[in-house]
Nicotinate phosphoribosyltransferase
Amino acid sequence: MANKPVIQSLLDTDLYKLSMMQVVLHHYPAAEVEYLFKCRTEGADLASLATEIRDEISHLCQLRFTENEIHYLNKIYYLKSDFVQFLKLFRLNENYVRIGRDEEGQLEIKVVGPWLHTILFEVPILAIVEEVYNRHFHADVDLKVGQRRLMEKTRMIKEHPMGGQLKLMEFGTRRRFGRRWQKQVLEHLNRSVPDNLVGTSNVYYAREIGLMPLGTMAHEYLQAFQALGPRLVDSQKAALDVWAKEYRGDLGIALTDVVGIDAFLRDFDRYFAKLFDGVRHDSGCPFEWGNKVIEHYQKLGIDTRTKSLVFSDGLDIPLAFKILAEFGEKTNVVFGIGTNLTNDVGVKPLSIVMKMVKCNGQPVAKISDSPGKTMCKDEAYLTYLRNVFELS
C-alpha cells in the first residue's frame, strides 16, 4: 500500500511562518531570498532519498488553502483580511526549489525566490525529509515505545510539586517522527494535561484538535533585516520596529539570539522592553540567558512579573522543571518543546535545519549563543557581522 503524502494541508506548518508572511506582504513583498537545507547528523543517507523527497515537494506545491481553512484563518484576529485573501489565492511554486547533491555528495536543498512566495517552504520540507527518512530507515519502529515515554512525561508533570505551574507549548512540527505521531502526541497531551498545554505551533492540528495556535517570529525575520534595514548595526531595532507597527501589541514575544543575547539586549532598550510582552530563548545556557534578561528588565525599572520568558531550545520535561524552579517566582515562564515530544520514539532523530542565507543578494547569518549553529559560508561577512555587533 502506497504511503500517503507527508503534507496534506498548507495549514500543516508553524504559525510563525504565517505571522512573518503577513509582515512580508505588507512591508517587503519584493524581497528576494535564499534558504539552504543542512543535515547535522553524521552518516545519515539522505541523498538516496532525493527522488522521493522531490515527489513529496511536488505534491506540496499542488496544495491550496481550502475554504474551511480560510474561514479558520479569518477568525485569527491579528491576521488581516487582505493577507487571508492573499492566502486564498496562494500556492507554492516548485520552480523555486532546487534538489541535488553538494560537493561532499550529501543531499542539497535550496529554495531561491521571492520571500513572500518561498517563506512557507521551510517547515513542510523539514517535515518531509524527516518522515521520508524514517519510512526507509526506521520503518520497524514500535510506537508503543514512544507512547510509554509520552505517558512518563505526562505522569512526571502530574506528580511534580510544581506541575500545576508548568506552561507547555508543542513546537515539534519541523522535526516530528511523522504526521500521525504528532497528532497522537497532541491528543494525549490534551487529554492528560489539558491545564498545562497552552497550545501548539502547528496551525493544522490547532484547528483539528481545538487548541490555541502559537508563534511570533523566527530567526529568518531578524536575519533578513541585515539586508533590509537602513544600517546593519540597526537591523535588530528595525525588525522589532516593523513588527510592532504591524501587530500593534499582539504577538509580542521577541527572539533574542540572532546575533547573541548581549547584542540583543543592547538594542532591546526601555522602549522595546516595555512594548514587547517578553522574549524567547533558543540557544545557549538557559540559566545564564534568563538571569541576563531579568537583570536587564530590572535595570530598566520594569517589573519582571509582568513579562514572559519563553524557553524553546532542546528542552525536555526535567530541564523545564529546573528552569521553572529558577525563574518561576520572578517572571512568567513558558516552555516550547519540540523534538522531545514529537520525535522521542526510541530512535535518534535527525538534526536538520533550513535557514535563510541570503536576502536581496546579500549574505545574512545567525550567530547564536550556541557554537556550531551558524550557517553562512561567507567568512568575510561573518567577520563583519561580529565586528559590527561587538561579538568575540
Remarks:
- The chain has one domain: 1-392.
